Q: What sequence folds into this?
């Protein structure tokens, strides 16, 4: 049974089937009793899908009341018609909920280049409303495409005798159905927060979590993470200890979701965590960690449980690690040191191979004694990935 | 039988087995009777292998007499010892040829992190000298690692009643043996050319050829292309028509070799040519073409003979094609137009699928009516790629 995750105070969520999928929920709504502060981070792909452009025009905001999501159709590469369809979807959702269209955010995920199936989505809205509950579970199911598992979680913290809840939900990384647009994330909280602070927290947390995962190096047209906060906990988190606790809670739920997305990567059999530490340069640490997670050679070696450190070193060089840092570089696979002080280390190869049999492999690269570190997550490359993506559209 | 390719006037080449491989040639030398102008382009990986650093310190030059190459060991990630080993290899090669060490260039390809096997290489030098001939063929075999076919060719042109020959040879793209450092290219000519012009031609040609291929997005520590020209044709190609003909000949041989490397990509069953044209920006056209060749989703779709244009559009957006160019975009798969004027086109899907059954697939993207175009080459992604790279080191 799926563990139930409670929505923050004043939030309801729903997910029902509108007929795009055969049985599974494929339309979901989150709504708040009261207006929310809302923030978003969006794909850097220049061909942004209609719902991405729509949300970007509304955010940041302090008057969002709901967000509606459909899965199966990305409403990307659909031009002017796509923008009209998206607006119609928002309008009908608003009417059904008794709200104004400008209070509604929209996300879509699925096939690129086909119109939104409004004839299925609109009639399903009243059913969705009837299924509102105070858990996130059915919403989490409704946003899945080829994900093997739903991805959701929550964190709470107490301060001033009050409880703040942060719940979040994501989908991503499956592409069995071709042309999928991939990563969506939603964070809802009852913290009292200004839109600027919420935007800042979301951007900083996204940079450390969702922006540090990769399944195949593809940047989708629909990627976005949205955050809503309705203040109903009565705890102002704009500064001080409350700010720290809030950011920590958002970071924790988002990191867990990001890791779930990487672990559920297409065809993946292993989660790979790459830690690059001791860097004098944060950007370089992030770039190096990401390049290691996107290397098809390293992904294949991990799949083959092969302690192939040379491929990691090559990728650090590709990231632009300065030549004079070389003599300080240390590389560890799980707990086995394979490279140190710029030199290959004698290591127990069978033991290293055995350590790599785990379903979670950690690669740790120390670049020196600089203050910056970065962590990225990915997955191994398997024949199943190729199978999934050579299937017919 | 391999077609024989004649070396340019005054050049000899050789390739013999020194015992790193079981039987196949694994050490090769090209030498010129007279001093050569020499130029090089080198990997951007910051952890450059010892022979790369050595050649960079000598080039451009007008007094190079020979280059020696070994396959099986990359002499990368080998530190100070690697530089010493490389120098010793150059010194012994010079002595054997009766030359000075500073007249010798060196290239290595193979496993990262192991020392050069000088105890095998040095005793083989006299044998290599005895095997000098005026064809490039054995040299082309000696530089192979996991390449399935040797890659070499030549072009000649006539001007002022004289003949100029450009011969070239490359290896690359196999990585069955782990930690391989990949791409090497050698261009030799009897044109009379200044080192600055040779360097300029090599850089410009490399940008259009070797720098536009990708098998898996990995930038090796050992990549380099070297050009030697000894002037024995008596034709000065520094300017005018002779310059144009010379550059065209270098471009032709290098393009053919680059395409061979892409076609021989690990596990590949199809060559993919991507043409991005009508761009107002050359850099963007190149970036977009390369991003399409490196997309695991597009590579998988081509392997599955799936006319999946959405993945191509997503990649154009990831490359940063401006939003307002969207309505001019046209995408053709082989001869089938699948996207035009910013809209999906109705097309005959079975016919498109059939067209994609060819072993050479061309993807053509028109971005508008700008003056710039770029061509990139890659290969499909197959289960064999994963098999090759999960094998144990």
A:
């Amino acid at each position: 049974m799926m563990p139930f995750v409670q929505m923050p105070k004043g939030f309801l969520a729903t997910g029902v089937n509108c007929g795009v999928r055969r049985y599974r929920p494929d339309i979901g709504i989150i709504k708040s009793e009261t207006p929310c502060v809302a923030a978003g981070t969006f794909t850097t792909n220049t061909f942004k899908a209609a719902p991405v452009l729509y949300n970007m025009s509304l955010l940041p905001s302090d008057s969002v009341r709901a967000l509606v999501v459909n899965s199966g159709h990305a409403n990307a590469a659909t031009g002017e018609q796509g923008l009209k369809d998206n607006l119609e979807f928002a309008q009908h959702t608003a009417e059904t909920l008794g709200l104004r269209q400008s209070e509604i955010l929209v996300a879509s995920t699925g096939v690129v280049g086909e119109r939104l199936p409004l004839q299925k989505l609109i009639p399903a809205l009243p059913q969705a409303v009837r299924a509102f509950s105070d858990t996130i579970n059915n919403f989490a199911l409704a946003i899945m495409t080829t994900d093997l598992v739903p991805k959701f979680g929550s964190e709470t913290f107490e301060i001033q005798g009050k409880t703040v809840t942060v719940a979040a939900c994501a989908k991503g990384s499956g592409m069995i159905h071709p042309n999928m647009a991939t990563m969506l994330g939603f964070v809802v909280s009852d913290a009292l927060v200004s839109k600027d602070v919420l935007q800042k927290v979301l951007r900083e947390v996204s940079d450390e979590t969702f922006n540090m995962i990769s399944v195949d190096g593809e940047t989708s047209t629909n990627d976005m993470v949205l955050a809503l906060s309705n203040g109903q906990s009565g705890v102002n988190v704009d500064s001080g200890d409350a700010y720290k606790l809030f950011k920590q809670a958002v970071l924790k739920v988002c990191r867990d979701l990001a890791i779930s997305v990487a672990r559920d990567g297409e065809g993946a059999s292993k989660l790979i965590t790459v830690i690059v530490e001791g860097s004098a340069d944060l950007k370089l640490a992030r770039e190096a960690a990401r390049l290691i997670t996107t290397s098809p050679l390293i992904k294949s070696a991990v799949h083959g449980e092969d302690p192939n450190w040379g491929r990691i070193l090559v990728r650090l060089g590709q990231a632009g690690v300065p030549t004079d840092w070389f003599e300080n570089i240390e590389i560890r696979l799980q707990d086995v040191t394979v490279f140190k002080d710029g030199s290959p280390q004698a290591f127990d190869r069978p033991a290293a191979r055995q350590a790599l049999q785990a379903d979670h492999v950690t690669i740790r690269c120390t670049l020196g004694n600089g203050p910056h570190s970065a962590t990225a997550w990915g997955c191994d490359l398997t024949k199943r990935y190729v199978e999934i993506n050579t299937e017919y559209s």
